[in-house]
Amino acid sequence: MKTKATYNNRITTADEQCLYSHLLTCVSVESPDAMLDRFQALFLDGFGYPDRDVVAALDRLLACQEIEEYFRFILNRCCHILINRWQTNPQLQPAIPVLIKLLESVPADRVSELSRSRPIRRLRQVTQDFRDTEQYLALKRLACVIEARHSALPRNRQAEAVPLGSLINRYPYLYEHCLVTEDSDLQHQQYVRHMQVEAQHKFEVDLSHYVTYRVRRGRLHRQGQTDFAERLRMVPNPTLLNDKELVSSLKHFARRRDHGQSYRDGAQRFLLNHDHGMSFRQFKEDLFDYIIADVDADYGQRQFKAMLQDHLLSSFTDSDSNPMDDFLKVRTCSNLFNFLVVDPSAGRQHYVFLDLINNLGPVHTTGLLLRILLICQKVRPFLDRRFSLLFNHYETASSETVAWLINMFENINIALSLNFGSVDLSHAGAR
């Protein structure tokens, strides 16, 4: 992965601006097919482009010694000039995945016949190198999301093993961290947030319809009206869990638990008893008790309990005698996600997370994270970020190989929808 240059340290040159202005003008008046032809000729084939001034500007850029360092920013911005125009029109959006797939195409082989053979070879080299960048990965993920949004095929089931990366559309909480890079412009960031809200709402609506169907069907069966129950229009399971797993997850995150307390009720009770005023050390001790109470006793008595306690009590010890405040709570809960999920500063180590899933299962592991999130909702972006790191790490793995992670992602989707969603799913725990 090429990470030497940083976008914030760069100043746009006149030749770069020439490219951007030219593409902005063209995309505002030409069809996607015409723009795809332009893109192919200018950036991939390297010949046959009609505007000589634009070709000359690109050649001067390619002659720069540092072009390998920052070409990814130039090509990414050129791609997004087209994408930003097309994404505002649903009829034009299917052109976006086509554009991104062009980056994988083999250019026409006429280099040896041309006087511009040297800059063309340089162009093709840096364009090929672009495929190893974070910008290209984000574009590929964007293509997956858009293709899924426009697909007529059902998206809830996978008939065969696929790369984990192709499932990105299913997990809107990953969008902001997986579809946006350091050089993404404001328009693209807003569009990603819009897609995120839409995808989350659609999942919640689909989940609500499924729950309603299950509740109605179960009620009719209990009333002895089996014929009516079987004639109900079937509502498909909107997850990659099987029906038994989904019903179990729904009941777990929606039911009354802990002596009549839901996850949300339990978190509110903890917060009421831990308002500002107590010392930070006391808060950490009580937070440990709050977390470990939801962990299976047999597992908790093994290494996990000691590790969790040591991690919590050794965190930010210089503030132990200070009064508890929001800043310390955010730092502590975010640091907990480093321990429980993945630590970005420790080589993306996540052995504790794997151990939790293997011993507690994905439902109870999700519940453990949810308890922390409910007492400090400001750390939601930190949790999303950590899941995006895991997604990136396993992105090319087969869905069969990382079924445990997909199961976890699906349960996170359900838990977030039930506890933070905008659709009423209060009947989700009903039989």
Layout of strands and helices, then pairs:
Layout: H1 14-27, H2 32-45, H3 52-63, H4 67-86, H5 95-102, H6 117-130, H7 134-150, H8 175-178, H9 186-222, H10 226-231, H11 243-254, H12 263-272, H13 280-292, H14 297-313, H15 326-340, H16 351-375, H17 380-393, H18 403-420
Helix pairs in contact: 1-3, 1-4, 2-5, 4-5, 4-6, 5-7, 11-18, 12-16, 13-14, 15-16, 16-18
Task: Give structural notes.
- The protein is an all-alpha fold and 431 residues long.
- It contains 18 helices and no strands.
- α5 runs antiparallel to α7 (134-150), α11 (243-254) packs across α18 and α12 packs across α16 (351-375).
Tell me the overall shape. globular
Q: Report how far apart the termini are.
A: 49 Å
Q: Could you estimate the helical fraction of the residues in percent? A: 55-70%
Total of DSSP H or I helical runs spanning 4+ residues: 18
Mean pLDDT: 88
DSSP strand (E) fraction?
under 5%
H-E order: HHHHHHHHHHHHHHHHHH
Largest beta-sheet characterization: none
Number of beta-strand segments: 0
**Whole-angstrom Rg:** 26 Å
